[in-house]
Amino acid sequence: MNNYINRNIVSQIKEWLSYNKIIILYGPRQVGKTTLAKHLLKEITGSEDGFISCDEGEASLVLSSNNTEKIKNFFGEGNFFVLDEAQSIPNIGLILKVFHDAYPEIKIVATGSSSFDLANKTAEPLTGRAKEIILLPMSWNETKNFFHSNRNKNFVIEKFLRFGGYPEIVKSESDKKAISILETISSSYLYKDIFMHENIRKPELITKILKLLARQMGNEVSYNEIAREVEVNRATVIRYIELLEKTFVIFRLPGLERNRRNEVGSRKIKIYFYDLGVRNAIIQSYGTLENRIDVGALWENFCILERMKEISFVGEHRSHFFWRTDNGNEIDHVEEFQDKFTWFEYKWGNKKENKNSIRIFEESYKNSNGLLVSKENFEEFLKFNLF
What we know:
Elements: H1 10-18, E1 22-26, H2 33-45, E2 51-53, H3 57-64, H4 68-75, E3 80-84, H5 92-102, E4 107-112, H6 115-122, E5 130-134, H7 140-147, H8 153-163, H9 167-171, H10 175-189, H11 192-197, H12 203-215, E6 220-221, H13 223-230, H14 234-246, E7 250-254, E8 269-273, H15 276-282, H16 295-313, E9 319-324, E10 330-337, E11 340-346, H17 355-364, E12 368-373, H18 378-383
């Protein structure tokens, strides 16, 4: 198989580069940021000469100097450069601002592995000069394109639900190899940014919290309940969950609260994973789908995540929620965009359509429609109500 997998986000990067924006490319470790940046560099310039590892000695010293002429001389000829692991340079945001103002014709992609690190260092200094783009594990369409027509849809879906979408997982030829890669990712890379850049006194606490979240995936989560379970205070649980979100391990889905007094709203949250392979590695659960009791939750997580990726590819921003009333009416997933609401119910196997909840939701939110999502109409769902 070809070693490089085309990523949908590349067209977005090219577009923003054409507007002379610095690209801040970040996301989880091992999702292929460096590979993508090198491929783009070679495609545009014909070589990888403009690739600079910021955590290596000379590059780190020169860039840290904040001397634009010195940096330009170090870069050499050319007008496109990749700064890999840019978060390792102190004040990188300010450095890029000064350099960009001096040499606006030079295009730069800066990569990094976590939002609380690279994004925080660049957000304020680069206001109006940069575009932040997040690279996540591979999407359904990227994986489907990689497999071409060699695999059927059910095979690809099962692989996603069991092993996730990290590039090396997608390219792996056996379950044994996929599990080996996931064990490495979950043990060596998952917490690296948190431990490197945050004052974590009890690393084992994050593991305990993450295991609880993995088993509660798709259910409403109580911070107080988790705090009691791991024997810490509520504020510590919230802090650790925020760190896991900023390092692209998990994401939160709040309750929707607009029209009705009896909606649970932001009092409740659900937590999902950016990669299901990582989630399954955390609880050591790799079994085939027919033998799993959590397959409905896996399908729901997969669908929500793929929908969010698809929206990012078309350059839109939408708000995401679940919806539930105090008397038990519930919708799995609701999108809000330009004051319109789109609901989704995710169906795996024999799950029945929740007609009463859908009726009540559409009565409450007049400007809404939606879709019951199954394997059969999954690809229609990805494009549903997108412009």
